[in-house]
Structure formats: C-alpha cells, structure tokens
Amino acid sequence: xxxxxxxxxxxxxxxxxxxxxxxxxxxxxxxxxxxxxxxxxxxxxxxxxxxxxxxxxxxxxxxxxxxxxxxxxxxxxxxxxxxxxxxxxxxxxxxxxxxxxxxxxxxxxxxxxxxxxxxxxxxxxxxxxxxxxxxxxxxxxxxxxxxxxxxxxxxxxxxxxxxxxxxxxxxxxxxxxx
Amino acid sequence: xxxxxxxxxxxxxxxxxxxxxxxxxxxxxxxxxxxxxxxxxxxxxxxxxxxxxxxxxxxxxxxxxxxxxxxxxxxxxxxxxx
Lengths: 178, 82
Description:
The structure holds 2 protein chains of 2 kinds.
Chain A lengths: L4 H4 L22 E3 L4 E5 L6 H4 L5 E7 L3 E3 L4 E6 L3 E6 L4 E6 L11 E3 L6 E2 L4 E5 L1 H6 L6 E5 L7 E4 L6 E2 L4 E6 L1
Antiparallel strand pairs in A: 1-14, 2-3, 2-13, 3-11, 4-10, 5-6, 5-9, 6-7, 7-11, 8-10, 12-14
Chain B lengths: L1 E6 L8 H10 L6 E6 L2 E4 L3 H6 L7 E7 L3 H11 L2
Antiparallel strand pairs in B: 1-4, 2-3, 2-4
C-alpha cells in the first residue's frame, strides 16, 4: 500500500447496508451534480418557504423519478439524518441534500442510509434510498433539495441545468462561483 | 458574554426548519453564538454544524453569546429556539 492510498480509498461503511452501484458524475470544478434522477426545478419553486426563500442556501431541487439519492459532490459526510445528508466538499463547498418537505416527522421511516458521519464519498456515490410510497403515505412532497449551505461564502450559486428539464443523477446542475 | 440554556420543546429537535429560522433571524446580529450539546458545539451561523449536533426534543442546549449586541442577540435567540 502506498503512502497516500489512505487518502484515496473510500472506507467501507461499518454498519450501513450495502448500497447500489455509484453513478457516473460529471466532473467539473465547483459543480454539484443532481443527487437523483428527475425533473430539475429552481430552488424558489420548492413548495416550502424554508427552501424557496433560500434560507438554507441556494441550489436547486429535483422531483425524483427514482428512489436512490447520490452524493452531489466529493467530500466528507458531516451529517446524516435519515431524510437528509450533509457533505462538506473537498473544495470547501458545504451541501445539504434534503429529501422531501416536512419528512422529518417520518423519523427515518422510508429512508435507508448508505453512509454515516465521517465517511468519504465521491460525487455519484449512493447516500440514501427513499421509499416514495412511504413519503406519499405520510402526505409529504418528495422533492429532493440540493442546497449549498455556506452560500454566503461564495460570490454566487447558479443553476446550470434548464429548469423543468429531466436529468439523470450525476448530471451537473449547479455551479458555485467564487 | 451571555450564557443561556434552552430545553428543546419541538420533539423533532434542531432540524432543517428551525435551523433555517435561527440562522435567518440572527443574520442581522453581529455577536458570535455558540451552541453546545454534550461535547458537540456549533456556531448558530453554521447550518450543517447545527444539524450535526443531532439535538432532539427534550435535550438541553447550552448557548454562549459574545459580542457588541449580545443582549439583543440573546433576546432574538430566546424567541426563535424551538
């Protein structure tokens, strides 16, 4: 094992269940990729003022066609909450991926986590599986919010995908301008 | 420096909605606000850090406010903590 291999290898999750395969993520500096396949919308169109007011940061949201949510950026997992995951990118960009609106009251039911706090992830690695039927049964919208939670540290955070377009998970959708 | 404690009434604890409210209400304040739960601490301006506290309903937060407008900041905090 080379001296630097410890920085390259992704640690195996100890307790988390094995996830599906990673998706190929567009590689570009300061770009965030879609965490799930589906229809991209502007953050301001998310049906919740916490997100649409961009209080948690700028970014976008995706109305999901699929149930697996992938890392939008390469970095370290800082928070896992069942329905949400926070990742601090290797380049200092902090992102929050939040599945659905008011899904906190599901107390984790309907969500399977594949990562835990401290894990190193690459953009496109699976993080959470949601069960859309459970979210619908709880009466919540299931849109997946992608927010740059340290937006004030950057010049701008821009949507680079066409609003209302359908994208595959791993497609670059948001760009951070320094 | 002002120190206060707060027991979370919201059974969901510090989740995205209250955290966003705290951060936005404190945007006009200049004091440093540090929230401690057990051995973990986070700045009230650090959204991911606050989520990372994993604070649940019924748990007690220890908060330290330091700065020129600390009294005003503490007053705002008392109104927005869930």
